[in-house]
Amino acid sequence: MYSAENYLWGWIAYGTGVTCLLFVLWYWMRNLRFTTIRHLVLLFASVCLLTPVTAYRDDPHLAPAFFVSLYEGLLASGDNLGFQRGLAPVLAFCFLAVIFYVLARFLISRFTKGSKGSAPAAPTVNKAKPPIKPEAPISAKAPIKAEAPKAKAKVKAKAKPRAILPKK
Fold first, then answer.
1. Residue 139 covered by a domain
2. Most buried of the four, 12, 30, 39, 130, by CB within 10 Å?
3. In the predicted model, is pLDDT for residue 99 greater than 60?
4. Burial of 119 by CB count in 10 Å (0-12 exposed, 13-18 middle, 19+ buried)?
5. Structural domain contains residue 138
6. CA-based nearest residue to 97, from 44, 49, 50, 51
7. Host domain of residue 67
8. How many whole angstroms separate alpha carbon 87 and alpha carbon 68?
9. Which whole-number Å values give the CA distances from 16 to 12, 19, 21, 43, 93, in the listed order?
C-alpha cells in the first residue's frame, strides 16, 4: 500500500499530464465551428479523466476512476463489479456537468442579451476602403503617356572565331 504522500504526488503528476492532454485536445479542436460540441467534448474528457474514486474498497485514498475501472474490469473475477465501481461516478459527474453547462450557457446568454439591448450601439466606421484623394488636380489636357519600361539589352552569343583569310 502507498502512503498519503505517495497518492498526493501521484495526483500532482497525473493532474499535470491531464492538463497537457486537455490543452492538446483544445488545440486540435480550436477551429471547430460549433462551440457547444467543442465545450462538451472538453467537458466530458476532463470529467472522465479527473473523477476520483477510492483506490481499493478498504482504502480511503483516491485514484482516477477511469484507471480504477479499467484495472478492475480487466482483472475482475467472481462477484467483483468490474467496470461499474469507477463507471458509476464518471456517469454521475458527466450528467451533473452537462446540467451545469446548460444552466451556465442559459444564464450567460440571458445576461449578454440584456446588456446589449440596454445601451445604444456605438456608430461604426467603415475602415475597409478609405476614400481616394487625388494628389494633383486633374486637367482637361490629354493624359500623359507613361514611358514603357526599358527592355533589357539582349546579350548576343559570342560568335566562333573565324579563320582570317589573307587578302588578295
1. no
2. 39
3. yes
4. exposed
5. no
6. 44
7. 4-118
8. 9
9. 6, 5, 9, 17, 21
Position 155 in a domain: no
Would you call 95 exposed, middle or buried from its count of C-beta atoms within 10 A (0-12, 13-18, 19+)?
Answer: exposed
Average pLDDT in the chain:
79
Beta strands 62-64; 52-54: pairing state: antiparallel
Does 143 reside within a domain? no
Cell numbers representing residue 76 in the block:
475482475
What average pLDDT does the segment 84-98 reach? 90
The torsion angle over the Cα atoms of residues 9, 12, 13 and 17, rounded to 10 degrees, is 170
Q: How far is CA 105 from the centre of its chain?
A: 20
Identify the residue with better confidence: 80 or 99. Answer: 99
pTM of the model: 0.60
What would the pLDDT profile of 135-166 be if each residue is shown by its tens digit?
666 666 655 666 556 656 565 666 666 677 77
